[in-house]
Amino acid sequence: MLRKSPRLAFLISLLSLLLRSSASAPAPHTLGAGSSLSVEDHARAFLVSPDATFSCGFLEAGNNAFSFSIWYTDAANKTAVWTANPDAAVNGRGSRISFRHDGGLALSGANGTTVWESKTSGAGLSVSLLDSGNLVISDPSSGGGGRTMWQSFDWPTDTLVPSQRLIKDTTLVTSQRLTKDTTLVSRYFYLYYDNDNVLRLRYDGPDISSIYWPDPYYGVFPNGRTTYNSSRIAVLDDTGVFLSSDNLRVVASDLGHPGVKRRLTIDPDGNLRIYSLDPSTGGWTVTWAAMAQACSAHGLCGRNAICVYQPSLRCLCVPGHEMVDRHDWRQGCRPMYSVPNCSQEAPPEQRFKFVEVPHTDFYGYDVGYNASSDTFEHCKKLCLEMCSCAAFSYRPFEGGGVCYLKGFLYNGYTSPNFNGNIYLKVPIGFDASAQSVSARSSEGLACNPDGPEIVQGTPDTFRASRNNAKWSYLFAFAGVLGVLDIIFIATSWWFLSSKQSIPSSLEAGYRMVTGQFRRFTYRELKDATGNFKEELGRGGSGVVYRGVLDKGKVVAVKKLTNVAGGDEEFWAEMTLIGRINHINLVRIWGFCSQGKHKLLVYEYVENESLDRHLFGTDRTLPWRERYRIALGTARGLAYLHHECLEWVIHCDVKPENILLTREFDAKIADFGLAKLSKRDGAAGDSMQLSHMRGTTGYMAPEWALNVPINAKVDVYSYGIVLLEMVMGCRVCDQTTAGGERLEMSQIAQALRQVVATGNVVPLVDGRLQGQFNPRQALEMVRISLSCMEDRSNRPTMDDVAKALTACDDEDEHPAYR
């Protein structure tokens, strides 16, 4: 048996003491290069803010999964307020966070692969966790407290902490999480600024995308918001007030209590809430929520499913339907009966009947709407005779009611406060007696059984009953809504009827408010165009004519060719297209569908199309206008791909379909026509078309591969257009010195050389005579090259718009010297 020497025993004791003191020592708030933390040591924080309010380090994100996050130190459950890798947790063995010697903060997985990094570099940098909860990488040598190279406040995940701003280029997204049965709940809910400068909540799932807050039923102004702002900034302050530049102001119920630690989080159920930390327990209390009823959020229960309170939030299938996936309600429900074919010769009343589901509605996807004078029987008749009508919603009022015909059943909810019913269109032999929603309530699965309850003030200041609070809120809201309606209508009338001089853009905005999407007769459009006399242009989808409506409004009328489906299907598609509204998209005023005549009525854009200005020999488009057109086109396509109620793939992006206003603002034309063309079907965000669409020279390679088409075909086409704006000529016309046409692979290789060397001058349109911004030109070439990559490697149009916006920081574009 070995005996320890006194000296060895002393050294072991000293080492043990040093290790214990090191483990118990508080984490620093600033670290220099070379610092790191292993995931096996996750019990220790990587950094702690100077006042110890915030900590950052590894947090458990599942079974043997961890994330690098920031949290309130005193919170019992260490709820993350920021996460470096919200989409990809790292392994509980071998992973590490490191502040490298090159000045980059990096998170590596078990195999050493970098899964996230700050993308900073430089000598002498430091990383600090501030008292605000902001993780900052700075250069102390810059003076004045150091220059910030990167900060977590610029990259929010699902939470804002006090003083952290949400701006136009940032978004809060629900975090991924594992449920009790290990089902992954995806990041489907977003808080962001829309193109109309309004702060909104949107569900963006695999099948549908729709805005649900502020309540889309009322519109912007009745909800107390305004579109007339350009700052797009929202912030939660230290007192519990959440302010937004669109006129939103909300307060936490514990407003005025000093020293309260709060956070604003978009939760996995799609609701936006303010939480306050209880210092005695370390738990969180909800002190404000965007929606008092969780079922107001969209997408919670999937297609043909209803969100109900029993008493917690639950999902149910409508009568005659069953769950698609017992572990995921977002997959919705499918019918347990065969739907009769619409082409059968028997009258519809002999093939269909209706099942009533009381106090229930499905928001959106209306294929028809009749005003308050409609009767129940007429509404029923309309749905019965319309093949695409799956159900109708009827809301009775004195002297009539409102009728909504539904093409799809999404965003369903049941509430005893809803004054209306949904009527499902089912086969005549369907037995409804055993299929009522109430009879099937036990089959509902709880979506959020432990949903948080809002604490309405402290016990000594507010003890009003929930019922009284509800009715007080409703009466107050109704009063405010009425006043806003009167003010808004009167103001709009005054502006439109007065002779005062106002900006044309503002006047156009007011006129758009009073305009409406309408259905024209063929005779009306024939008269408006003078029997289709003045042709403006033509393409694969039809011919465009100039027209003047009876009130003197100049419009563009397109005669469509190769339109699939009958009047009902065309009406359904136009109902969706007619809702699309963006400053960089040509506005659609209405349509005509009479037998073989299918026409669209657009706003008239007076400055012709981009190709006339870009490729014409008698004019040179200045660089400033080129860049603005490139940015506007990117924003318009990003709206179509990411923000519409239904995703829209253009399928024919080219200069001829980019129209220009008098101020050279871009407006994309012919969007939505791919869905009107003859097609085989659609699935999710991809669709299989029966024939190739687009124009030679702008078509993505996958068109020839017979694979489902997605939005990346537009990204490819946009990349070609972007390069043409730099060069001032058609890409497809480029040839070698020997006169042979260049292949796209050769063009891509040349672009890589330009990006690598940074020498963009030889590529830029010579007609500009050096008057261009070299930084912007190089960025446009880089983006164009990335758009031509393989489909999986192309950026999204949202990414493209953000990249171009980042370079659009100068009012005057300097000439190259």
Walk me through the structure.
With 817 residues, this protein is an alpha+beta fold. Helices cover 21% and strands 28% of the residues. The chain has a six-stranded mixed beta sheet, with helices on both faces. Strands 3, 4, 5, 6 and 7 form a five-stranded antiparallel beta sheet that branches. The N terminus and C terminus are likely disordered. GO terms for molecular function: ATP binding; protein serine/threonine kinase activity. This is Receptor-like serine/threonine-protein kinase. It is a single-pass type I membrane protein.
Give the biggest sheet.
6 strands, mixed
Q: Give the class-level CATH name of the largest domain.
A: Mainly Alpha
CATH architecture of the largest domain: Orthogonal Bundle
Mean of all residue-level pLDDT scores: 79
Major sheet strand order: 40-44-45-43-42-41
User: What is the 3D shape?
Assistant: globular
CATH fold name of the largest domain: Transferase(Phosphotransferase), domain 1
What structural class do helix, strand and pairing data support? alpha+beta
Radius of gyration: 30 Å
Into which percent range does the helicity of residues fall? 10-25%
Strand portion: 25-35%
Unreliable spans: 1-24, 178-185, 434-515, 677-685, 810-817
Number of domains: 6
Descriptive tags:
alpha+beta; single chain; Hepatocyte Growth Factor; 817 residues; Agglutinin, subunit A; 49 strands; serine/threonine-protein kinase; disordered N terminus; 21% helix
Short description:
By secondary structure, this protein is of the alpha+beta class. The chain contains 13 helices and 49 strands.
